[in-house]
Amino acid sequence: MIVPHPSSALIGLRLLADETRWKLITALRDSDWQVAELVTATGLAQNLVSYHLNMLRQAGLVNAHRSDADGRVIYYSLHLAALEALLAQVGHELALPEPTVPPLPPVTVAFLCRANSARSQMAEGWLRALSGGQVGVLSAGTHPQPIHRLAIAVMAKAGAPIDQQVAKPIDAILDQKPQVIVTVCDIAREECPVWPESARHIHWSIPDPVAVTGTNEEQYAAFVAVRDELRERVRGLLALLPRWFNVQ
């Protein structure tokens, strides 16, 4: 069995995850320090400080500079560019969302849930808004119901209106041949019809805000929570689409 080598991002994360090294990095984020000053600032033993500083130096995350005033004194500092590069590598390997939307492939995504009255409609609205219309998007339900008034209200509040969208059965979108199928409720995942093998199927287990009972404020809060979770999920999907469909 061939064991793959850990990625550079994983090696870097292992390095940062150590509590002692994290204390040193945190201290060096504020200022350059000598070893004795780091001992005082962190409360760590000098041998530990020296050992872990050496590890961070070997990884290229910490620099050492001899004092211009006294060459016997060494100041340690963070290599910020190296830290940024490490975090960028982590983001690249996990396809984390970026502040700006990357170039997107000309694909169609379909969001499915049971009623097509809330979750799938909000996901459709977010993908249309966040992609700037670059990605085709549909939604449908196994047992469609009218769009819930609170779904319309919370999306309007967020600047991604869905009041022009309509609920529809899955049969109504079968001929659209979406390349990505996203089920946003567990029931729909079990009831979803068989789609072509060429479509990529993913599932988001999103709680049903319609099922929440209580005061008007509690119901509204449930829709807001789902709206915000779907926004983050859609942002993550937008970061994955170029990788899935080989966009350079």
Q: What is the β-strand count?
A: 6
By CATH, the architecture of the largest domain is named 3-Layer(aba) Sandwich
Mean pLDDT: 90
The name CATH uses for the topology of the largest domain is Rossmann fold
Oligomer: single chain
CATH class division of the largest domain: Alpha Beta
Q: Tell me roughly what share of residues is in helical segments.
A: 40-55%
Order of strands in the sheet with most strands: 4-3-5-6
- Count of separate DSSP helical elements: 9
CATH-wise, what's the superfamily of the largest domain?
A: Response regulator
- What's the gyration radius in Å? 25 Å
Order of helices and strands: HHHHEEHEHEHEHEH
Which shape, going by the Cα principal axes?
A: elongated
Structural class by SSE content: alpha/beta
How would a textbook summarize the main sheet?
4 strands, parallel
Distance between the ends:
33 Å
**Overall number of domains:** 2
Q: Hey, roughly how much beta strand do the residues contain? A: 5-15%
Q: Uncertain segments of ≥5 residues (pLDDT<50)?
A: none
